Structures are given as structure tokens and as C-alpha cells.
Amino acid sequence: MSAPHRPEARRRHRRVVMSLAAAALVLAGCGSSDVADVADGADVADSIEVRDTVNPAQRGIAAGPRSAMIAGLAFAPDPVHVVYGYSVEWTNNDDVTHTVTSTSDLEFDSGELEPGMKFSVSFDEPSADHTYVCTIHGSMEGTVEVSGPAK
Predict the structure, then answer these.
(1) N or C: which end of the chain has fewer CB within 10 A?
(2) What's the CATH number where 67 sits?
(3) C-alpha closest to that of 99 among 127, 60, 70, 79
(4) Structural domain range at position 120
(5) Do 67 and 128 have their domain in common?
(6) For the CA atoms of the chain, what is the radius of gyration?
(7) Residue 25, SS3?
């Protein structure tokens, strides 16, 4: 590098060092056991929990209730995308009875849905995906993907 660029490189290096020191202080204030690793030169990215801060609308997920249907012995859409705090409503558009029954940690069960009936579940907690099945037709499976709040 030529001489005029050296002061800028030093300033950039100072900023990186200060950022790492600030991250170590933040982690120390949180009581993290990873502070020693950061101080020893470990990768800061490995020591900091990164949360998904992307607005769900930027990923094409608008806030609001979602509609899903049961037709042709299938759930659609699959997966259903919903922002937490909102609900999904399934409508049985098929000619036969179905259920919408959770197979994951959030327990829900529609009971028997005759043709034309609806069933709704509110997803009030940010969490992992929720899977469900039709207990009458075991090959019918679906997923609800719950994302963070709209901002």
C-alpha cells in the first residue's frame, strides 16, 4: 500500500479493535461464559447470539390472519406462514371429513371437520415450526411456520 493509505488503515484497525472490546464488555455485562473466549481472540460472531431481525414483510410474510384449505386430501398451502400473534384458519373444502391435529409442542385438535367447516388456531408465541396431520387420513401432513413480529 502507498503511504497515504496507512493512516486510514490504522483508523480502520482501531475501529475493529474498539468494536471487539465493546462486544466483550457487552458480553461481560450479560454474564456470558463466552467472554473469556472473546478476550482470547475467538471469533466474536461465535460468541454472540444473533436473532432474526428481518421484518417478516421483507420476506413476503404479511402480518395478519392466514387462510388455509383442505382439498383433494391435502393441506394447502404447505407450509402456512404466519407472524406470531395471528391465527391460521383451515376450511374443509373437501367432500369428506378431516381433522387438523398437532404433532408438535403446541397442542391443537380440530376434532372432525365436516365439509365446509372451519377451524382456527392462534399462534401467540414466537417458536419453531408446528407440524400437524389429519388423523383420519394419515398421509395428510402440514406445517405452520411462525415468524417474529412485524415491525
Answers:
(1) N
(2) 2.60.40.420
(3) 70
(4) 56-147
(5) yes
(6) 24
(7) helix
Distance between CA atoms of residues 65 and 58, nearest Å = 17
Q: b or e along 99-136 (b: 16 or more beta carbons within 10 Å of the residue's beta carbon)?
A: bbbbeeebebebeebeeeeebbbebeeeeeebbbbbbe
User: Is the domain of 100 the same as that of 30?
Assistant: no
Number of Cβ atoms within 10 Å of the Cβ of 68: 20
Considering the domain architecture, whether residues 60 and 14 belong to the same structural domain is answered as: no
Considering the chain, what percentage of its residues have pLDDT values greater than 90?
44
Pairing of strands 86-92, 80-83: unpaired
**Same domain for 98 and 40:** no
Residues 44-102 have pLDDT tens digits of: 334 333 333 344 444 445 567 889 999 999 999 999 999 988 999 999 999 999 999 99
